[in-house]
Every structure is written in C-alpha cells, then in structure tokens.
Specification:
Elements lengths: L16 H27 L3 H9 L3 H28 L1
Helix pairs in contact: 1-2, 1-3, 2-3
Length: 87
Amino acid sequence: MRGRPNIETDQPIRMNDQVKNKLKAAGKVAFGAARIVSGTATATGHGLLGAYCKKHHMLHAAVRYGTESAKAGMKTIEEGLSDWKRA
C-alpha cells in the first residue's frame, strides 16, 4: 500500500494530476511571497544585500533592487494563482 491512508475509509490517498498541478501552483505562490518579503527587506536596508548597500551609502541601489524583486514576486504570485485556477 503506497501513500498515507485516509482516516475515514482506510484507503490510500493517491495523487492525481490535478493535485500535483495545484501543489506546483501553491509552490509558485509561496515563492512569489518570499520574493516580496526579501525585496522589502532589501529595500529597507535589512538582509545581506540591503545591509551592505546601507553600510556603503548605496541605499538607492538597494531600494531599486528591492522594488524589482517585489514586482517580480507579485508577477510570480499572479502566475501561481492562474495556474491554480487552471488546475
């Protein structure tokens, strides 16, 4: 018997293509959210890159990089949501 059994029916839970596609879409959404958080931390002078830029008086570069990272994260979340709806 493969997979974890269902508590109610004691039958194994099988992953079909729809479940796999939904998991991939959820991963995209999570990755996009992580990029937004990372970009925000960089733009505010936190994290490795943000702290380096802040220390060397290049906070404008950190803000620019953080903004682009947050925009890319939002695009990734939108792609993940559209994949979720398609699955």
